[in-house]
Amino acid sequence: MRKGSVKEVLARIKYDPREDESDYYIIIEHRGAYGDVKRIPVDAIELGHGYFFVGDAQIPYHRILRVVRNDGRVIWETRKL
């Protein structure tokens, strides 16, 4: 399941022509609200150096808890859970 950093996993999903980024979403911990999580489709994010972007929002990679396929299979999960 956990092969590489979350940024590497997301880059493979977004840029590998064999993958369809619309088949994936991420679960993030919402800032300032422990236990409040949000689901964001991978095709809605842009990858940056230390952050990823959703529209104008800049979110650090360490907030990502999981990368999940739409069928429910967890592709990557943080070790802090």
Structural commentary:
The radius of gyration is 12 Å and the shape is globular. With 81 residues, the chain is mostly beta strands. The two termini are 15 Å apart. It contains one helix and seven strands; from the N terminus they run αβββββββ. It has a four-stranded antiparallel β-sheet with strand order 2-1-6-7, covered by helices on one side. The mean pLDDT is 91. It has one domain. Strand 3 (46-47) and strand 4 (51-54) form a beta hairpin. It has one helix at residues 6-15; strands at residues 24-29, 37-41, 46-47, 51-54, 57-60, 64-69, 74-77.
Produce the secondary structure layout.
Layout: H1 6-15, E1 24-29, E2 37-41, E3 46-47, E4 51-54, E5 57-60, E6 64-69, E7 74-77
Antiparallel strand pairs: 1-2, 1-6, 3-4, 4-5, 6-7
Task: Calculate the terminal CA-CA distance, rounded to whole Å.
Answer: 15 Å
Main pleated-sheet profile:
4 strands, antiparallel
Q: Number of helical segments? A: 1
Q: Pick out the low-confidence regions.
A: none
In the sheet with the most strands, the strands line up as: 2-1-6-7
Question: What percentage of amino acids are in beta strands?
Answer: 35-45%
The helix/strand order is HEEEEEEE
Helical residues, percent = 10-25%
Using only C-alpha atoms, the radius of gyration works out to 12 Å
Quote the average pLDDT: 91
How many DSSP-defined strands? 7
Q: Rough shape?
A: globular
Q: Decide which structural class fits the backbone.
A: mainly beta
Q: How many domain modules?
A: 1
